[in-house]
Automatic annotation (TrEMBL):
UniProt keyword terms in alphabetical order: ATP-binding, Ligase, Nucleotide-binding, Purine biosynthesis
Domain SAICAR synthetase/ADE2 N-terminal span(s) in chain numbering: 11-250
GO biological process: 'de novo' IMP biosynthetic process
Protein family per UniProt: Belongs to the SAICAR synthetase family.
E.C. number(s) listed in UniProt: 6.3.2.6
Catalyzed reactions per annotation: 5-amino-1-(5-phospho-D-ribosyl)imidazole-4-carboxylate + L-aspartate + ATP = (2S)-2-[5-amino-1-(5-phospho-beta-D-ribosyl)imidazole-4-carboxamido]succinate + ADP + phosphate + 2 H(+)
Pathway(s) this gene product operates in, as recorded in its UniProt entry: Purine metabolism; IMP biosynthesis via de novo pathway; 5-amino-1-(5-phospho-D-ribosyl)imidazole-4-carboxamide from 5-amino-1-(5-phospho-D-ribosyl)imidazole-4-carboxylate: step 1/2
Stated name of the protein: Phosphoribosylaminoimidazole-succinocarboxamide synthase
Organism whose genome encodes this protein: Amnibacterium setariae
CC terms in the record's Gene Ontology section: cytoplasm
One Pfam family per UniProt: SAICAR_synt
InterPro entries with a match to the protein in the record: SAICAR_synt/ADE2_N, SAICAR_synth, SAICAR_synthetase_CS
Length: 282
């Protein structure tokens, strides 16, 4: 997506999203998703058609499911350009907390690596002998400090969250994150999808209230696994990027730029995103 969006000032770009400010509305922002996908810390060269619209639809749906949690969606009368309308969200500008509110129901990824090194994640001691992909006795709040774009977030103990945002907000971040995770994983579970982990971001609005921000419970912020595959011993079968990961693992040594995905992989991945969103939002 070029930076040009009439009536909006380009602010910054993430891996797969751009942030704009609506001219004349400094209390609002526009998040515009694009069809790019990142894997192995690289934004792949070939976009996945329809991905941005599907993930925007999913985030909107989750916000509606989590009606008891204040969120940043704005219903202001600002015209969003037709060209991006199905993959854009007009949101209230918040004072964002610099904490990635990660909740894990299963141990995998960077959390599993930290567990193998230290026996804990974000300072939380865990049972011995856990294997990659094991379900945890109960979901845990494992916050991270927002790293600069492209770097890995650094897991931090709850005490550091208190230092960053104060005890009251830290407790609210933890309790709200755990509550949302419990609600969302129950919804996903009923549809044959494991929500293994997710990352929430929150900010304060002008009244000082805690507001759920950014994208929510999408395959970019969460790991969604196929529950039937997990039950049959095939762990961590991702719903979205597994096709891309498997193809890259078979056709790339991980050095330098990732090769272009073939049409068949792009199409199957696009289908898989649609399948996940239609399964969850049915
Ligand atoms: N409601 C809000 N209020 C204030 N700030 C934000 C905010 C800032 N940055 N990001 C993440 C991001 C970075 C790059 C492109 C993106 F589309 C999004 C979200 C939000 Cl969502």
């Amino acid at each position: 997506m070029s930076d040009e969006l009439p009536g909006f000032t380009f602010l910054t770009a993430g891996k797969v999203r751009d942030l704009y400010a609506p001219e004349g509305h400094d209390d609002l922002l526009l998040l515009v998703a694009n069809d790019r996908v990142s894997a192995f810390d690289q934004v792949l060269s070939r976009p996945i058609p329809g991905r941005a619209a599907l993930l925007t639809r999913l985030t909107r749906w989750w916000f509606a499911q989590l009606a008891d949690v204040p969120n940043h969606l704005a219903d202001a009368d600002v015209a969003v350009p037709e060209a991006v309308a199905d993959r854009a969200m007009l949101v209230r500008r918040l004072r964002m907390h610099p904490v990635e509110c990660v909740v894990r129901g299963y141990v995998t990824g960077s959390g599993y690596a930290e567990y193998r090194r230290t026996g804990s994640i974000s300072g939380l001691p865990l049972p011995e002998g856990l294997q990659d992909g094991d379900r945890l006795p109960e979901p845990i709040f494992t916050p991270a400090y927002k790293a600069e774009l492209g770097a890995h977030d650094e897991n931090i103990p709850f005490e550091t969250v208190v230092d960053l945002v104060g005890a009251e907000t830290a407790e609210a971040l933890r309790s709200t994150s755990l509550r949302i995770f419990a609600e969302a994983s129950a919804i996903a579970d009923a549809k044959g999808v494991i929500l293994a982990d997710t990352k929430f971001e929150f900010g304060d609005d002008a009244e000082g209230g805690l507001v759920l921000a950014d994208e929510v419970l999408t395959p970019d912020s969460s790991r969604f696994w196929d529950a039937a595959a997990y039950a049959s011993g095939r762990r961590g079968v991702g719903f979205d990027k597994q096709i891309v990961r498997d193809w890259l693992a078979a056709h790339w040594d991980g050095e330098g730029a990732a090769p272009d995905l073939p049409d068949e992989v792009v199409q199957r991945t696009a289908d898989r995103y649609r399948e996940l969103v239609e399964l969850l939002t049915a």
